[in-house]
Task: inverse folding
C-alpha cells in the first residue's frame, strides 16, 4: 500500500514538470565557492589533565549552477573526502519550490539550517549536534525529496527521506534477486522518515523569526523515533537574541522504555561596531530525562571580529567554554579560537 502511494506521487510530479513551459532557451550560469576554518584549542579537565592542539575544522568546496528555474548545488568536505550536498532545485515561482538529492531538509533551526559560515560561537549548540547524530547523521543531511511553500510571512517545508544520511539507495531492477544472498536483506524498507517545518517572519516586527518542526524516523532501518523543536530568533539592531528547545524520543522496542533527550539554549550577541561583536550562550543538555545527575550545562562567552563590514569572508572567533556536569565535580574549562576564510566567485 505504501509503495502504491509513492508511485502515484512520483508520477504526479513528472506530470507537473512536463507541463511547465520551457520558454526561451535559458543561459547556464555557475559559481565556485569554499571555506577554510583553522582551529586552535586548549582544554583543562580537572587539576591534572591539559590538552592543546591545532587543526582544521572545515575545508569545504562548493559549486553552484543555475539553468532557468533549475538550480544545482554540490558541496564536499576535503578533510574527510566526503560528499555533503548534491541537490537539484526547481522554482515554479516565488511561492513554491522542490528539491531532491542529498541535502539539509526541515529540522532543528540551529542544526544544519544554520550555515557553518554563520555559526555564532565556534560550534553549534550541543543539543543540536546530538539531535543530528541521533537522526540522519552528524552532518544533518539525507537523501530525499522536499517541497517548500511560501504564503505571506509563512514558510512551510515537508521533507521525505531515507532516514539515514549514509544510505544511498538506487534499487535498480534485478539487483535484489542477483545479490540477495550476499549483501542485501529481505524485508520492507521504504523512505518513511518525515520532517515538517513551519517558519514565521512577521512583517510588523522587523528581525523576528519564530518556528518549529516535528519529525519521525524510519522504523524499517532501526531508527524509530520522534522529535520536535521550537525556536525564536530576534535581531532588532546591534542586539541579537536566540532561543530554542529541542526534544528527541527514541521509541523503546521489545518492552523497553522510551528514551527522551531534551535540550535548550539561550544566545545573545551585541555588535559594538560593524566588525566586532560580543557573544554569549547558555545551554543545557539532558541525554535522558528519566535519570538524574546526567545533564550537562555549558556557558560560552566570546567575541567575533570580521575584517570587512557585515561579512564573514575573513572572520576570527574566540571563546571560553565552561562546562558543568551534574554527575561530576571536575573543574573543566576550554578555550577555542577559529579563523575563517570564505570565498565565492562572481
Result:
Amino acid at each position: 500500500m505504501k509503495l502504491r502511494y509513492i508511485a502515484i506521487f512520483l508520477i504526479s510530479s513528472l506530470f507537473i514538470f512536463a507541463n511547465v513551459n520551457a520558454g526561451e532557451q535559458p543561459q547556464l550560469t555557475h559559481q565556485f565557492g569554499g571555506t577554510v576554518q583553522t582551529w586552535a584549542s586548549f582544554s583543562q579537565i580537572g587539576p591534572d589533565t591539559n590538552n592543546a592542539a591545532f587543526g582544521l575544522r572545515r575545508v569545504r568546496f562548493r559549486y553552484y549552477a543555475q539553468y532557468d528555474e533549475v538550480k544545482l548545488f554540490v558541496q564536499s568536505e576535503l578533510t574527510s573526502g566526503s560528499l555533503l550536498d548534491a541537490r537539484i532545485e526547481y522554482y515554479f515561482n516565488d511561492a513554491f519550490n522542490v528539491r531532491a538529492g542529498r541535502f539539509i531538509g526541515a529540522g532543528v533551526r540551529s542544526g544544519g539550517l544554520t550555515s557553518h559560515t554563520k555559526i555564532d560561537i565556534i560550534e553549534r549548540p550541543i543539543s543540536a549536534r546530538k539531535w543530528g547524530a541521533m537522526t540522519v547523521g552528524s552532518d544533518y543531511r539525507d537523501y530525499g525529496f522536499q517541497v517548500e511553500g511560501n504564503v505571506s510571512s509563512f514558510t512551510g517545508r515537508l521533507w521525505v527521506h531515507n532516514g539515514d544520511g549514509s544510505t544511498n539507495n538506487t534499487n535498480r531492477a534485478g539487483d535484489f534477486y542477483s545479490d540477495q544472498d550476499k549483501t542485501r536483506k529481505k524485508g520492507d524498507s521504504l523512505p518513511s522518515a518525515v520532517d515538517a517545518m513551519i517558519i514565521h517572519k512577521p512583517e510588523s516586527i522587523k528581525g523576528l523569526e519564530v518556528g518549529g518542526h516535528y519529525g519521525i524516523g524510519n522504523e524499517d532501518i532501526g531508527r524509530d523515533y520522534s522529535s520536535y523543536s521550537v525556536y525564536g530568533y530576534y535581531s532588532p539592531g546591534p542586539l541579537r537574541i536566540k532561543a530554542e528547545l529541542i526534544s528527541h524520543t527514541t521509541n523503546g522496542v521489545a518492552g523497553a522504555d522510551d528514551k527522551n533527550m531534551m535540550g535548550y539554549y539561550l544566545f545573545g550577541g551585541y555588535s559594538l561596531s560593524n566588525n566586532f561583536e560580543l557573544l554569549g550562550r547558555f545551554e543545557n543538555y539532558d541525554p535522558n530525562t528519566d535519570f538524574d545527575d546526567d545533564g550537562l550545562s555549558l556557558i560560552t562567552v566570546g567575541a567575533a571580529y570580521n575584517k570587512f563590514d557585515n561579512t564573514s569572508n575573513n572572520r576570527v572567533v574566540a571563546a571560553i567554554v565552561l562546562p558543568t556536569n551534574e554527575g561530576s565535580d571536575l573543574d573543566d574549562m576550554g578555550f577555542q579560537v577559529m579563523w575563517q576564510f570564505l570565498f565565492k566567485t562572481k
Observations:
- Residues 176 and 195 are 29 Å apart (CA to CA).
